[in-house]
Design goal:
Structural class: alpha/beta
Number of strands: 9
Bound molecules: nicotinamide-adenine-dinucleotide, zinc ion
CATH superfamily of one domain: TPP-binding domain
CATH architecture of one domain: 3-Layer(aba) Sandwich
Oligomer: single chain
Strand order of the largest sheet: 3-2-1-7-8-9
């Protein structure tokens, strides 16, 4: 791995416009399980598939089931950013990382101090009323049932559910930052969700790097591939 780390160090320190595209694997070391990793939610047994319980279909037709899963598995109190989030925030401060595009909905990059974060799938802690559009934060809602607004409408979390599209402005901005970038680091994502993979062609820069515990379908396109924990790799970046 040392040879790859040396190469990575050189590339990072000689890039002017790095974009990091990440997923659930960025937050596993903060204690939030991923979906498809070894200990991920998809390897646990439920009566319904996680894809169904996080779908717009389930939300509209079985909101009790939706919210039971949501409050149990998608909301984590007292989690803190880990070294990966902090290291990326530091690269932004140094002026060499321009943007983080994340599939995560946990808000940990912002908590670590990153300013330019594009949340492809939204944020799990914010909600809006389906009837009057009033905004709510997770700390203001009761979690034991289907949460409702003062007007009586059902609250919907501000995340992209299975069966929904990514916000068009967020997609456009992600395409734009990728098109400007000279180095794309993809990390902690299985690259199996097409909201992320459909963005990859917009990157035409020099260095495409993948750091992920498991193999991804895009490994053969990358100039450096490291199958290791992101924390272990980023710790070695000077
Ligand atoms: P995924 O679960 O499909 O894949 C995660 C990948 O990260 C796996 O390939 C795994 O090998 C790797 N990984 C795990 N820990 C790692 C580490 N410490 N270092 C390096 N790699 C590590 O996740 P995905 O591709 O992001 O897709 C899952 C979807 O689920 C996303 O749409 C996301 O919105 C959502 N999700 C979000 C969170 C969160 O906000 N923290 C958590 C779970 C799922
Ligand atoms: Zn309302």
């Amino acid at each position: 791995m040392d040879k790859e780390i040396n190469k990575l160090n050189f590339i990072i320190n000689n890039s002017k416009n790095i974009v990091f595209l990440g997923g659930a694997g960025v937050s596993t070391e903060s204690g939030i399980p991923d979906f498809r990793g070894k200990d991920g939610l998809y390897n646990q047994k439920y009566d319904y598939s996680p894809e169904y319980m996080l779908s717009i279909d389930c939300f509209l037709n079985n909101p009790e089931l939706f919210y039971k899963f949501y409050f149990d598995k998608m909301i984590y109190d007292n989690v803190k950013p880990n070294i990966i989030h902090y290291k990326l925030a530091e690269l932004e401060k140094r002026g060499i990382l321009s943007c983080i595009i994340t599939q995560n909905i946990d808000g940990l990059h912002q908590m670590a101090g990153s300013k330019n974060v594009l949340e492809l799938h939204g944020n799990a802690s914010s909600f809006h009323c389906m009837k009057c559009n009033k905004k709510y934060h997770i700390k203001d809602i009761k979690r034991n049932t289907v949460p409702t607004c003062v007007c009586g409408g059902i609250l919907k979390p501000d995340i992209v559910l299975y069966g929904e599209m990514v916000d068009i402005d967020v997609s456009k901005e992600a395409m734009h930052v990728l098109a400007q970038s000279d180095c794309l680091i993809v990390g902690g994502t299985s690259l199996l969700v097409n909201t992320a993979t459909s963005l990859l062609p917009y990157f035409t820069g020099k260095n495409f790097i993948i750091i992920n515990l498991d193999k991804t379908p895009y490994d053969s396109y990358a100039s450096i591939v490291i199958h290791e924990k992101l924390s272990k790799v980023l710790k070695k970046i000077k």
